[in-house]
Design a protein that fits this description.
The protein is an alpha/beta fold. The chain has two domains: 126 residues, Rossmann fold (3-Layer(aba) Sandwich); 183 residues, Rossmann fold, CATH 3.40.50. Helix content is 34%, strand content 14%. The strands form two sheets. A seven-stranded parallel sheet has the order 8-7-6-9-10-11-12. It has a six-stranded mixed sheet with strand order 2-1-3-4-5-13, with helices on both faces. Helix 10 links the parallel strand 9 and strand 10. Helix 1 packs parallel to helix 13 and helix 5 packs across helix 7. It is elongated, with a radius of gyration of 22 Å. It starts with 8 loop residues before the first strand and ends with a strand. The mean pLDDT is 96. Bound molecules: 2-keto-D-gluconic acid. 2-keto-D-gluconic acid (8YV) binds next to loops.
Length: 330
C-alpha cells in the first residue's frame, strides 16, 4: 500500500468560522488560534519557521522581517481576505512562496456596506438614532435633522473593479449618476449598463462630484491617492466614503477638512492605522465611523474560509491554487 502523503502543517492566525475550522482540521494538520488573540511578530516568526502553510488576516503584518525567518517548508500564504497589502509580496516572491487571497465572495457585502454609508452619512442616520436614544427628540419639526438628498447626485467611484461596479449598480438604483476613475477604462458594456462616465483625470472628477466612494486596493501606487492637494479639489458639499483601505486617504488632511467644514462629511469603515482611530475623527459629528466591518457577514466569512480551504487543498495536491496573487514554486 502506498504511504499516505504527509498532511501539510497549517497555522491559522485568527479565529475563523466554526465550519471552516472543523474542515481545516479534517483536511490538514492544523493549528488553530481559538483564543483569537492577535499574534505578535515573534509568534508570526515562529509560525513561518515551522509551517507549510500560513493563514493570516489583515491584522497580521507579514513583512520582510517575518518572511526572512520562513523555513524551508513554508510554501503558501493563504490569506483570509482579498486585500494583501499587509503581506510583503516582493519578499514572498523572492522566497518562492505562493500567496493566495479570497476575491469575489465579499464583493456584495462590501458594496452593501458602502451603499449603507452613502445613504447614512448624508441622511444623518446615526445622529438621528443617537438623538432619539438620548431623549433629545421633542417631536417632529419641519427643520430638524435635515440632511442632503441622495437622488440625482453625482457619485464618483475610485476603483471600478468588482466592488466598485457592485456599488455602482446599487447607487444607480438610488438615482445617483455614476462616475468613475480607474487605471483602465472598464468594458463598454459595463459602462452602458451603469450609464457610467469615465474620468481619466482623478483631479477633474473630484472637483465635480457630490459623493466620493473609495473602492480600489491599497498598493504603493494608491497610498494617499486622496492627498491633501486632491482633497482640496472636492466641493464643500461633498461626502467621502471609504470601505477599501485607510491608507488610500491622507487621514490627517481629511480630518482637517472635516473640522473646518470644507467638506460635508465622511463615512469610514477603514482607517490609516487600524485599529487605532484618529481621536480627532471621534470628535466630529459629520462622520460615521465603523470598525472595518464591510465583509462582516456570517455567509461572507464562511465563503472566504471555503476559498482558503480550496486554495490550500489544491496547492497541497500539487496544483496551482485558483486565487494566486503570487505564484511561487509548486
Ligand atoms: C477582510 C478586507 O475582513 O478582504 C479584505 O480585503 O478588507 C476585509 O473585508 C479582512 O481583510 C480579513 O483579512
Amino acid at each position: 500500500m502506498p504511504t499516505p502523503k504527509k498532511r501539510p502543517l497549517v497555522i491559522v492566525t485568527g479565529k475563523l468560522p466554526d465550519p471552516i475550522e472543523t474542515r481545516m482540521m479534517e483536511l490538514f494538520d492544523t493549528r488553530l488560534n481559538i483564543a483569537d488573540a492577535p499574534m505578535s511578530q515573534a509568534e508570526l516568526i515562529e509560525a513561518v519557521k515551522s509551517a507549510d502553510v500560513l493563514v493570516p488576516t489583515i491584522t497580521d503584518r507579514i513583512d520582510g522581517a517575518v518572511l526572512a525567518h520562513a523555513g524551508p517548508n513554508m510554501r503558501l500564504i493563504a490569506n483570509f481576505g482579498t486585500g494583501v497589502d499587509h503581506i510583503d509580496l516582493a519578499a514572498a516572491r523572492q522566497r518562492g512562496i505562493t500567496v493566495t487571497n479570497t476575491p469575489g465572495v465579499l464583493t456584495e457585502d462590501t458594496a452593501d456596506m458602502t451603499m449603507a454609508l452613502i445613504l447614512a452619512v448624508p441622511r444623518r442616520l446615526v445622529a438621528g438614532a443617537q438623538a432619539l436614544r438620548e431623549g433629545k427628540w421633542e417631536g417632529w419639526s419641519p427643520t430638524w435633522m435635515l440632511g442632503q438628498r441622495i437622488w440625482g447626485k453625482r457619485l464618483g467611484i475610485i476603483g471600478m473593479g468588482r466592488i466598485g461596479q457592485a456599488v455602482a449598480r446599487r447607487a444607480k438604483a438610488f438615482g445617483l449618476s455614476i462616475h468613475y476613475h480607474n487605471r483602465k477604462r472598464v468594458h463598454e458594456s459595463v459602462e452602458q449598463e451603469l450609464e457610467a462616465t469615465y474620468w481619466e483625470s482623478l483631479d477633474q472628477m473630484l472637483a465635480r462630484m457630490d459623493i466620493i466612494s473609495v473602492n480600489c486596493p491599497h498598493t504603493p501606487a494608491t497610498f494617499h491617492l486622496l492627498s491633501a492637494r486632491r482633497l482640496d479639489l472636492l466641493p464643500p458639499h461633498a461626502y467621502v466614503v471609504n470601505t477599501a483601505r485607510g491608507e488610500i486617504i491622507d487621514e490627517n488632511a481629511l480630518v482637517r477638512k472635516l473640522r473646518k467644514g470644507e467638506i460635508a462629511g465622511a463615512g469610514l469603515d477603514v482607517f490609516e492605522h487600524e485599529p487605532a482611530v484618529n481621536p480627532k475623527l471621534l470628535e466630529l459629528n459629520n462622520v460615521i465611523l465603523l470598525p472595518h466591518m464591510g465583509s462582516a457577514t456570517l455567509e461572507g466569512r464562511i465563503d472566504m474560509g471555503e476559498k482558503v480551504l480550496i486554495n490550500i487543498k489544491t496547492f497541497a495536491d500539487g496544483h496551482a491554487p485558483p486565487d494566486r496573487v503570487i505564484a511561487g514554486l509548486l
